[in-house]
Amino acid sequence: MNTVDEDIKWTTEGEVVKEVEIEGLESKTERGLAFLDTLSVINEDGSIKTRVHRKETHTDQYLNFQSNHPLEHKRGVVKTLAYRAKTVVSEREDRRKELKHLRGALKCNGYPDWILQELGEDNTHDEEKEATSEVMVTSDKERKKKIPVVIPYIKGFSEQIRRVFGKYGIPAYFKPTNTLRQLLVKPKDPVSKENVVGPVYKIQCEKCEAMYVGETERSLKSRFNEHRRRSSTTSEVAKHIHVEQPEHSVELDNTDILTTESRWFERGVKEAIYIRALNPSLNRDGGRYNLPPVWDNIIKKRVKADRPKKGGGGLVTVIAHGDPSDVRGSD
Ligand SMILES: [Zn+2]
Q1: 264 to each of 84, 200, 212, 225, 261, how far by Cα in Å?
Q2: Nearest alpha-carbon partner for 172 in 160, 184, 183
Q3: How far is 40 from 15, CA to CA, in rounded Å?
Q4: Strand partners, 38
Q5: Measured in angstroms, how far is the CA atom of residue 204 from the centroid of ligand 1?
Q6: Which pLDDT belongs to residue 130?
Q7: H/E element holding 9?
Q8: How far does the centroid of ligand 1 lie from the alpha carbon of residue 329, in Å?
Q9: Whose CA is closest to 98, among 114, 120, 115?
Q10: C-alpha 199 to ligand 1 mean position (Å)
Q11: Which is higher by pLDDT, 321 or 255?
Q12: DSSP 46
């Protein structure tokens, strides 16, 4: 196998020699070769049988039944283990032992009896036939299905959303959220506000209520400096502080990053949502994306809920899938 490609390095733990107890008889020595999760055992007559191989260090820890994961993931654990027992293990007696072992291990992981029924009895041959015909039927159906969506898993709520998707023939899959890893692991250093790239920002006049919402693919700092430049002819902010109200000014410190979005189209949508929500006096139009009026209702509701918070950083993070772990406005 190692000759197929130089990047393939197959190592073996060598021959596995094990004392196995045979029910009712005394133990005998068994010799075999382990590869991945399969153990090939050489029988006394020279023939080979296969079993599931677990390292000595294997702890039989599986996804705990009490953990906050969709039920189907837990069902998947049971099904996968059962499937392995039925495909990897070649002899009926070994298979019975493997299933018995799994039943015990899964019980220790909190799995109730009703779900363990999916381990099934040892009737491999019938099930194999069923399984293949089932696969053919579903793959036929699958082809007609629409592109699946992946939604965050929120117990009780995501199941409802999936039902709605299901009505339109769109398969939905769950992705666990709020894992410890997501909460604790932040591989990126925080970027200082002025260097944030692709922001939707809000510039507030220091002297009056005048406000401007904009977006840029560049850094906040460079776009902000353009707004403040006297020579800028296109900026409504520059017009306000240099022409209409020469006493007024704007500061980068007082400029909020409402959200960030690297994708051009999506950033335009987010900007439009904020313009609709905040109704900034210096914006001449609703932004480069023409947000349909159907959004008004949901924006109004969210703005009401957000009102106590200055700036409203939570708005778009909810309705336009912003990444709340990215830099937020300094509200
Ligand atoms: Zn002003």
Answers
A1: 46, 11, 19, 21, 8
A2: 160
A3: 10
A4: 35, 52
A5: 8
A6: 46
A7: none
A8: 21
A9: 120
A10: 22
A11: 255
A12: S
Q: How far is the CA of 34 from the centre of ligand 1 (A)?
A: 75
Separation of alpha carbons 180 and 81, rounded Å:
26
Q: How many Å apart are CA 302 and CA 312, to the nearest integer? A: 9
Which residues have CB under 8 Å from 271's CB, separation 6+?
Answer: 200, 213, 214, 215, 287, 288, 289
Which amino acid is present at 32?
A: G
Q: Is the pLDDT of residue 163 over 60?
A: yes
**Distance from residue 248's CA to the centre of ligand 1 (Å):** 5
User: What spacing in Å lies between the alpha carbon of 216 and ligand 1's midpoint?
Assistant: 22
Give me the amino acid identity at 141.
K
Bridge partner list, 48 = 42
Q: How far is CA 317 from CA 278, 301, 302, in A?
A: 15, 14, 11
Q: Give the tens place of pLDDT for each residue, 85-115.
A: 888 898 888 899 899 999 999 999 999 988 8
